[in-house]
Write a structure and sequence with these properties.
Helix content is about 35%, strand content about 15%. Helix 1 runs antiparallel to helix 2.
């Protein structure tokens, strides 16, 4: 998640299956019910954490970060792309320039589905220069990646078209996502029926926050957490500070999840969610200590499963 400060740089250039279950008819039997949609899979948190370990290793080998224009960012993008290519996605790298350095977005389309109705999920892949960015935003990036791989494993064939994205230079002012949105034709923007954003979903002292932008997307996430018996709150800390903002500004319905950054957890929130009141949701926000040790496994697991639930529900 980017810092809430003005004047950031701007870009200058360049779905085992979800096949419907069809009931056979038997003479004299009652009519078959409406087809049911396959349930979303459980996302193994161990798989998500394995991606985080890889991102940590990449940062460690590249000056301790995965920031825009640095070798660690490109290595992170190459890692994600290789996983998606092997899983049967059509991947595209979109290049732009910001602060004198080349940046990259990675877009992955799952073949099939109605391309006039696109359900898109994304996260920013870059870190700040100060650290490896494992919660911010390896957590969102890894969970979106594992959800995409789950689509492939299930050979999911949804009604709508699925697209996944990993954004560059978010930490410089939502540069990559803004570049993507600005370079869509009005026709193609209108084809995106929803954009789901995941920025920081494994905070060590977590909250469970749901964006309140699009009512249908919001209800989808709230229903999931209600099923777990986990209370949620409306997300306010990240308003306008992550990659949903360019989509929202362009009239695309948006939603997402967040587990908290540098805001302080209240006593009421600690009573509701556990953790420590009077302490930031993520004390290592934008710091060198945002490593694989800076992740709450329960929050990461719940939020990863919620992503898959929403992707399946909204694309069926």
């Amino acid at each position: 998640m980017k810092l809430s400060v003005p004047g950031r740089a701007t870009a200058t250039a360049v779905t085992a299956a979800a096949t419907l279950l069809v009931g056979g008819s038997i003479a004299g039997a009652a009519p078959a019910p409406h087809p049911a949609v396959a349930a979303a899979p459980d996302i193994p948190v161990a798989n998500v954490k394995a991606h985080l370990t890889q991102l940590q290793s990449i940062a460690t080998a590249n000056g301790g970060n995965r920031a825009h224009g640095r070798a660690g960012y490109k290595a992170s993008l190459d890692y994600v792309k290789a996983k998606l290519d092997a899983a049967g996605f059509t991947t595209t790298i979109q290049q732009f320039t910001s602060s004198g350095r080349t940046g990259y977005n990675l877009i992955a389309d799952w073949p099939g589905g109605n391309t006039n109705q696109v359900v898109m999920s994304g996260s920013h892949l870059d870190s700040v220069t100060a650290g490896p960015g494992i919660n911010d935003n390896g957590s969102g990036s890894a969970a979106v990646l594992e959800t995409a791989l789950a689509v492939s494993r299930a050979n999911y064939q949804p009604t709508k078209h699925l697209r996944f994205a990993w954004w560059g230079a978010e930490e410089l002012g939502l540069v990559g996502s803004r570049y993507y949105v600005n370079n869509l034709s009005s026709t193609n923007r209108a084809k995106i029926s929803g954009y789901l954003n995941f920025d920081m979903i494994g905070s060590p002292n977590p909250g469970y926050f749901v964006y309140d932008d699009d009512p249908t997307i919001e209800k989808t996430f709230k229903d999931y957490f209600a099923g777990l018996g986990v209370a949620t709150e409306i997300e306010t800390e990240g308003d306008g500070r992550s990659d949903h903002a360019p989509f929202k500004n362009a009239g695309v319905p948006v939603g997402g999840l967040f587990s908290g950054a540098d805001y302080t957890k209240t006593a009421a929130q600690a009573a509701k969610w556990g953790g420590t009141s009077g302490q930031a949701f993520d004390r290592c926000y934008h710091s060198s200590c945002d490593t694989t040790s800076n992740i709450n496994d329960t929050a990461l697991d719940r939020n990863s499963d919620a992503i898959a639930y929403a992707v399946w529900a909204l694309s069926s």
